[in-house]
Amino acid sequence: MAEMIQLDHPGSDVADAEAFLLEALQILLDEGVRKGTDATQKVCEWKEPEELRELLGLELRDHGESRQSLLRRCRLVLRYSVKTGHPRFFNQLFSGLDLFALTGRFITETLNTSQATYEIAPVFVLMEEVLLAKLREMVGWSDGDGIFAPGGSFSNFYAINVARFRRFPQSRRTGSWALPRLVLFASQESHYSIQKGAAFLGIGTDNVRLVGTDARGKMVPEELEKEIQRAKAEGAEPFFVCATSGTTVLGAFDPLGAIADICQRHNLWLHVDAAWGGSALLSGKHRHLLDGIERADSVAWNPHKMLTVGQQCSAFLLRDSSGLLQRCHGTGATYLFQRDKFYDVTYDTGDKTPQCGRRVDCLKLWLLWKAIGTQGLARRVERAFAFTRYLAEEMKRRDGFRLVLEPEFINLCFWFVPPSLRGREDDPQYWSKLGKVAPVIKERMMKKGSMLVGYQPHGPHVNFFRQVVTNPVVTRADLDFFLDEIERLGEDLGGTPHPPPHPEPSSDP
Q1: What pTM was estimated for this model as a whole?
Q2: Where are the beta strands (DSSP E) in 158-301?
């Protein structure tokens, strides 16, 4: 006999689930928030994949588990995940755990709506409108349009697609085959999403011209002019230029004024990828790095990076206020965007995007901004600059640290030269040996759990560290620890005896 499905109110199940939620929230507060941001705890508890699979018990079974079993699994997930809110996590262009923004994320996850129409997200449609207007004001525009996108890469995709539509509106119907060969331009230091966008949108990576940069990683305007002329001589159709404000590795800012002049002369769309560096606009001290951004046609800006809003929060901003986004992407699906609704349907913003379901990314930023104000956000930016300068000066005072270049932004790029290699620059194997130092130090810090910082090769440079401070709870003591720990973890490389190990942070659950 088939099992009867209970159709009345599942009261006991709801009560059990609420009890689980309350206990899980306490675990989250203890393990994720308190311990996860405590400098005496580990940044990560390293395990090899097979060991971690066994510890977590990832397999899925036919029957559910008890509340206590689930709570234990919650603790394990938190224990063995990387704590990106930890004050010694310097590995990405995002870090920190802001509790105001986190509260916003709890609320949006609880409401579980889509930012598509006013009827299902009235609060968030209005909130997004206010935030986008404020961000455009920071750029220097009094009007315009925009949308929150699922990350900076997709904001760049939007820019390319809208620029193509503006130049060739028929492409929406006829496709790329009816268009001339389109060419777009970005610097050699631009984000890889520009190449991905060209592939994704059918333009092709062969039609992305990477423009030469100077020693600091900035696009050279004269090289851009040459590439445009070369493309035209080949019979191609230039249509789009991406300038970068805050490159991923070196933190370079392209000269926007000179690039805007070239775009104006050739009637090219100017997009500024300010996903990383856009938050400098909040600071009166540092917004000069983006001088000329108000001349852009579009801008990508990720508040989830420097402002510590939390993943994900990426704004695509458009200077055009004529409805270009809607004309480019809209299809008017009649089951969702009915024209005969009882309210003003211009508030149904979901048709401006290729997405259907679109998560609410605005509340966490709005709540943070409400909590600390524009001045508080500006102080957050300025503090990151000050800490980068402090680290750079401390490195100059210590043997073994060598800057790749003086930081203009908060990307601090450096090598650690162990004692065995100091003064041996004439050795033909010097750079090859130095390039092996960062990976070993990174492995040691991860297995110890003391901190996390990224490294990479770049152009002619062998592996070097890239340190960024965005976490507002980082202290000078954390930065001093960072330098000391690099020295401890790397001092014995090449045969020099390693000093006694530093006490490891606690990892008690």
Answers
A1: 0.93
A2: 182-187, 208-211, 237-244, 269-273, 298-301
Sheet strand arrangement including 145-149: 145-149, 314-318, 298-301, 269-273, 237-244, 182-187, 208-211
pLDDT at 10 (0 to 100): 58
Check: CB of residue 471 under 8 Å from CB of residue 85: yes
254 CB-near residues (< 8 Å, 6+ apart): 187, 218, 219, 243, 244, 245
Q: What is the DSSP letter of 347?
A: G
HSE at residue 68, side-chain half, CA atoms within 13 A, is 0
160 neighbors 171 (Cβ within 8 angstroms): no
pLDDT along the chain (509 residues), means of 10: 59 84 96 94 95 93 93 96 93 91 95 94 96 97 96 95 96 89 97 96 96 96 98 97 97 98 98 97 96 98 93 95 95 91 92 91 96 96 96 96 96 97 93 96 96 95 96 95 97 60 43
List alpha helices for 363-429, DSSP H: 363-397
- Cα end-to-end distance, the chain, whole Å: 47
Q: Output phi, psi for 172, to 5 deg.
A: -60, -35
Q: What is the dihedral of CA 322, 326, 332, 333, to 10 degrees?
A: -160
- β-bridge pairing 412-416 and 461-467: antiparallel
Place of tokens 């600059």: 385
